[in-house]
Give the backbone structure.
Amino acid sequence: MNDTATISRVNKDIQLGHSVGVGGTPTIFINGSISKARTLEDFQAIVVKELEKAGKRAELSEGQMR
């Protein structure tokens, strides 16, 4: 934890995170956008929407995405 190379690497990662909008953890990106979803259902809805935009179809079964 006191190694200067490690501290430098961690600080670079923090700076990179801030530069792309990360304000804390967890931060989840879906297709390059930060997702505010926090439930499985919300994530599934976002993924289905993104797949539809890409011209693909998602099949949902028993609350799970296949």
